[in-house]
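User: Predict the structure for this protein chain, please.
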Amino acid sequence: MLSAATRAVFFVSDSTGITAETLGNALLANFPAAHFDRHTIPFVGTVTPVSTVAAALQSATTPEAAPIVFATVKDAGIRAVIAGSAAVVIDLLAGHLTELEAELDTPAEQRSGQYHGLGDLERYFARMRAVEFAIEHDDGQSGRALDTADVIIVAPSRCGKTPTTMYLALHYGLLVANYPLTDDDFPTDGLPRIVAPHADRCFGLTTTALRLSQVRHERRPNSTYSSLAQCTLEIRRAEDLYRRTRVPFLSSATRSVEEMSAVILQSMKLRDRPHERPTP
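Assistant: Here is the predicted structure, written as structure tokens:
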């Protein structure tokens, strides 16, 4: 039983639900004091029966508050079922599609799930190649084809290199490698040998020593690796290296992967340009 302070929220989609979740959560983030119980119902009308959605919304409706629905559904019949419930429905497609249809003077395709389908195959395969590149070049495992990388993320261990690398690859189709700064890379006047020739494509990550110690403690508790002294040393060395080599950097301590990726895109003047690059 939900407390009166908790509101049921549903992300309902005729596809994966990713768009509904992304846009819906972006709106909900503007209300940090509110508490939400989130549910995602994907593939409505194909895998998931419309009746399942109706039953879920009815079950979540209380005398105190109706559930909130963020919907990305094209089918008018399904939208009517959702609209007929007691829920507060925020249709994330309908109005915008109508505006685009009017502007482009052509009706939108009624086929569901197009946004997260294969769509442009060239673009899709470029993203898959970018993911393969990210996996091969994770944690400095390979120096192959680094000259084709769009960006090389450099940072001490557990500062957020890998998730940021994968996010940029999967969402933007960018070729991203990452390299871990270790004790073996210091003392040094410049960047580590493997990434030094590509300094113009390097971007650094840092964090607070306390946050790094906490993260490392989850992996290797009570070790030198996770000690506050070791973390303080590594963060200080890394930031000094970035400044001396003029590598742009940011702190991952209070930023999400999405925020860090946006800063990297802006700072490095990167764009999703899979059609311009050869396969590595």
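The longest strand covers residues 6-13.
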